[in-house]
């Protein structure tokens, strides 16, 4: 590999990280392939766990081991607390007026604090417990009706998506938004989220080669603008609906709270940093929540069920655990979850092998810095290959690619490892100050949905599919979809009273 020497703050000369040679103009963009997280894992085996790429005129570094991820996200987190400019943020996320792409600063902090306070703190999360449980119960009822009609199979990821979307929507805008007679068709809304993730994950050439920007060679920007208009109409609908309600009728949902704040004068002492939210900020935040928090969680449940169906003994062990704690005359509640140790291990193992955002979300260096002996220049984009890191045999051993939840059980090899950003070998939610804002909600709803489904139903495959033949292929977007949706036939396994509504 070529090593350019650059002078560093101290005057010492540091090499740039090694990396593959790229094409003229486009750099390494044409080499990414259909699944960039796989390609980048292979490049790390060749060039090492900290390597460099060039996309057009943009410099990138990729972190592909727990140790390197820790160097960036712990030691250098402050320097990488911004996200690089990108067309998705501009054309979909209201020109950076949202939380996910907000410049690191007062408005980002205020938006993040607002969600933490009203949705994701332990207290807010518990206050919204009945909303999640209610939606889980509705999912069960819906599946029950499917179980009585013969075997076309149910797309279980779609069912979980309805549950995840409506639970979040009730917390954010005070009502359900998908499914029977409430507005968007469930399939259509999920389709919009998947499209957004595909576009956001597309590595738009125009973002990296300014000269080609106007051409929009992949048509990504045109699609983004179109998709944005569809979302914007939905967000406008939420707001106008709220504004027609009289003051007293306004709920405690996030939208009501934000609208009220927007109308009130700022209180200098309210810890708001002089930040006044606009209607655009409100729409952009709602868009963030309803996209970042829906397909990520439902896809995780779908991957978990697919792994469990492929590992019948593990599924039986899980069902035994839930039966022991919950019994067979009612559904799972969130109060049961802390006692479900094996379930927790199953969820961690699912996040390990199938992290929802395989390349996390990009960060950008605010200043020059030195990482693990290499020079990383200001403006360099950081990608963290969380997918490769959580499959790295150096961290996970020879059975790294096997689905084996027991590794997380007491006495197991990874007993103390959690997904919350402190253990860099398992960071599906990222780490550091820009880590996932919705971690607590995401974990809770994924765990509740998975527990509820395996407890309430036996799930058998349809159309002659057998567990060993089940297709586990990934479809890449910013989020990791199953290439082939999981189709199952649900069969109730609890006492009839458990399903009574
Ligand atoms: C399976 C569930 C989820 C996974 C695996 C996941 C993963 C991630 C990751 C990897 C990041 C980037 C972190 C970084 O830059 O270090 C992120 C950011 C974010 N996520 Fe999640 N997420 C999930 C669920 C949710 C939910 C339920 C919500 C909200 C309802 C949410 C909202 C956000 C937001 C707002 C950000 C941007 C944070 C910021 O820039 O400050 N996510 N998520």
UniProtKB/TrEMBL annotation:
One of its GO terms (molecular function) is iron ion binding. Heme binds at residue 436. It holds the Pfam family p450. InterPro entries: Cyt_P450 (IPR001128), Cyt_P450_CS (IPR017972), Cyt_P450_E_grp-I (IPR002401), Cyt_P450_sf (IPR036396). The keyword Cytoplasm does not apply. Keywords: Heme, Iron, Membrane, Metal-binding, Monooxygenase, NADP, Oxidoreductase, Signal, Transmembrane, Transmembrane helix. It comes from the Eukaryota. Its cofactor is heme. PANTHER family: CYTOCHROME P450 98A9, FLAVONOID 3'-MONOOXYGENASE. Belongs to the cytochrome P450 family. This is Flavonoid 3'-hydroxylase. It comes from Triticum aestivum (Wheat). The gene is LOC123042898.
């Amino acid at each position: 590999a070529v090593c350019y020497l650059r002078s560093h703050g101290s005057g010492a000369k540091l090499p740039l990280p090694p990396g593959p040679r790229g094409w003229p103009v486009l750099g390494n963009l044409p080499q990414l392939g259909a699944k960039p997280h796989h390609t980048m894992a292979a490049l790390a085996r060749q060039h090492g766990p900290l390597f460099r790429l060039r996309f057009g005129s943009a410099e990138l570094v990729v972190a592909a081991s727990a140790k390197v991820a820790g160097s960036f996200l712990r030691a250098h987190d402050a320097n990488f607390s911004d996200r690089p400019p990108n067309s998705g943020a501009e054309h979909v996320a209201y020109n950076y007026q949202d939380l996910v792409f907000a410049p690191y600063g007062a408005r980002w902090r205020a938006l993040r604090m607002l969600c933490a306070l009203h949705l994701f703190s332990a207290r807010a999360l518990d206050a919204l417990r009945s909303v999640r449980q209610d939606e889980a119960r509705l999912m069960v009822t819906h599946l029950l009706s499917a179980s009585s009609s013969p075997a076309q199979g149910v797309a279980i990821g779609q069912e979980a998506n309805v549950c995840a979307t409506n639970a979040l929507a009730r917390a954010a805008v005070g009502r359900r938004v998908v499914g029977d007679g409430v507005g968007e068709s469930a399939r259509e809304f999920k389709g919009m989220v998947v499209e957004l993730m595909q576009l956001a994950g597309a590595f738009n050439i125009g973002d990296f080669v300014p000269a080609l920007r106007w051409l929009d060679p992949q048509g990504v920007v045109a699609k983004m603008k179109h998709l944005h208009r569809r979302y914007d109409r939905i967000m406008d609908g939420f707001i106008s609906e709220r504004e027609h309600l009289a003051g007293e009728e306004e709920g405690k949902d996030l939208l009501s709270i934000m609208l009220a704040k927007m109308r009130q004068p700022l209180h200098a002492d309210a810890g708001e940093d002089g930040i006044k939210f606009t209607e655009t900020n409100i729409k952009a935040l709602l868009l963030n929540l309803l996209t970042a928090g829906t397909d990520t969680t439902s896809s995780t449940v779908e991957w978990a069920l697919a792994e469990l169906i492929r590992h019948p003994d593990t599924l039986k062990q899980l069902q035994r655990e839930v039966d022991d704690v919950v019994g067979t005359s009612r559904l799972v509640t969130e109060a049961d979850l802390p006692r479900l140790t094996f379930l927790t291990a199953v969820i961690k193992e699912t996040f390990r092998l199938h992290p929802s955002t395989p390349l996390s979300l990009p960060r950008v260096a605010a200043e020059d810095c030195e990482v693990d002996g290499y020079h990383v220049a200001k403006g360099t984009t950081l990608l963290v290959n969380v997918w490769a890191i959580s499959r790295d045999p150096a961290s996970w051993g020879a059975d790294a690619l096997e689905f084996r939840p027991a590794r997380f059980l007491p006495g197991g090899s990874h007993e103390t490892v959690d997904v919350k950003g402190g253990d860099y070998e398992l960071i599906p939610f990222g780490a550091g100050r820009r880590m996932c804002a919705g971690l607590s909600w995401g974990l809770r709803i994924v765990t509740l949905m998975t527990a509820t489904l395996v407890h309430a139903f036996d799930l058998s495959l349809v159309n002659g599919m057998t567990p060993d033949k089940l297709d586990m292929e990934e479809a890449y977007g910013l989020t990791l979809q199953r290439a082939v949706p999981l189709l199952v036939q649900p069969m109730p396994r609890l006492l009839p009273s458990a399903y009574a509504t």
